[in-house]
């Protein structure tokens, strides 16, 4: 096991409930203690980060600074901090508007509703947020706590969705419909594009089945998004960078209690097209250290069976990790109910992993 | 899309003398055994001669496991649901299939996942309305995304304003708010954060007039058979003590606790848990 150097992007993914959020917070604490300027972003709409860092829901979308004094028991002799952000689709969009002076278009009922916290736009706008942060270049490391399971794949495929959406044919269609758009573009073969895209037919269908205001708002919403096309499209470069080993660390987090190797395998397979192969399998909540020191020589058959069962869970997961991942790191189960204690103990483990080399 | 309904010999079954719900939505953090619990519940109801179907929303359907366990299931995808719905609205499945393939609609559909979620839920409700004897167990996405599924219908109602689609959405809501229509089962691991997430989901769902929500804890060592009688090593005792502490602190909001089972065989776990599912009806 080589040490784990900090990268610009540190991505934590995995099935739910494995401790992604806690582990990413511990990574943030550890890297901040190494004098890195760190931003921790949680994309998961479940928002457990709120609970760990005592953040307020009303403050989501705003970057908050967490001083090291918030935690006790890790690098207490030093003073440092890291920043944390609960993803808010609406705030991300507003910031984008401010940067490009296109805020006005976002004052649209459809956009407002869809960018509510559970409106479903979290994953796509998270990509925009990360890209904006990368461009501003304030942070040495951006740690991403991603949504569970297949929603992580949604996040990864976000740029592809954005690219499709901004297919250049759309702008022509809206010009045809008599709506003003900011960027002027002319095109050849316009009529064939119009027919192929199906926009006109779709809109006439929508007019039949929804209220009269909806189609107008809908067109305005699309134009507002289109006027920010460039910001959306630059996010694609973020995806390309994710393939570079020097740019990102990938941690696929799993835990022994779940036995979800099948799901992890699916995720890895889908993600492998988008990520580099120097990735980490992080086995969280490992009971191995405890089990190894448990002597069952004189125990009842039941306890012997229990130990065997628990050890085989650990072994299956380890075997899977070794066969499928370049690197495997493990984090022992922390027997405490306080999230703060978990973060501190896991941060110590990161430090230990780094010192091993 | 065909429903797979195995035949049960009624010989051993105990008739379930209780009204069951039309739709059970099983959610909670990922990896808490949503699939296991959903399948166990379906199995329990099927064995009690109820007409039920298991549907997997978030994960690819494990058809082999359903068949091994005699679990009636149906395969439903978001894309297919959308195509069927549009076909119905346009009175033409050919046009619907064309709409679904147009780059504009497809990209829009992909950009706004809530739309697909809503149509999918609508499709399930439609299936239930057509068959008064049918119940469906929906192995649903994890809590944040389950909320998106319910919230989307309200969001789209607000956006569309009026028209046929709004009528359909109102129809969905009316169905869900009927007595005995919907129960949301939130599964949590015995940790503070998981249970708090479950409680938060409950509060959020209340806002949408979804009242029948039950929080259950899964994979608890303190319920593992024979474990409490044994002299345990310190770490296991500590683990159980921590579970107790969490369960005590949240006692009023937890309706049921399922055990951690020693076996790794999914089939045996589902089989074992299915005998305890009466508590969730």
Characterization of this structure:
The complex is a heterodimer of chains A (357) and B (281). By secondary structure, chain A is of the alpha/beta class. Chain A has two domains: 276 residues, P-loop containing nucleotide triphosphate hydrolases (Rossmann fold), CATH 3.40.50.300; 62 residues, no CATH class. Helix content of chain A is 51%, strand content 13%. Chain A has 16 helices and eight strands. Chain A has an eight-stranded mixed beta sheet with strand order 3-4-2-5-1-6-7-8, with helices on both faces. The radius of gyration of chain A is 24 Å and the shape is globular. Chain B is α/β, with parallel strands linked by helices. Helices cover 50% and strands 14% of the residues of chain B. Chain B has eleven helices and six strands. Chain B has a six-stranded parallel beta sheet, sandwiched between helices.
Strand order, largest beta sheet of chain B: 2-3-1-4-5-6
Q: How much helix, percentage-wise, in residues of chain B?
A: 40-55%
Q: Indicate the radius of gyration of chain B in whole angstroms.
A: 20 Å
Which quaternary structure do these chains form? heterodimer
Amount of helix of chain A: 40-55%
Assigned CATH architecture of the largest domain in chain A: 3-Layer(aba) Sandwich
**Number of separate helices of chain A:** 16
- Low-confidence segments of chain A, given as residue ranges, are 183-191
Mean pLDDT of chain A: 84
How many separate domains make up the residues of chain A?
2
Explain briefly what this protein structure is.
The complex is a heterodimer of chains A (357) and B (281). Chain A contains 16 helices and eight strands. With 357 residues, chain A is α/β, with parallel strands linked by helices.
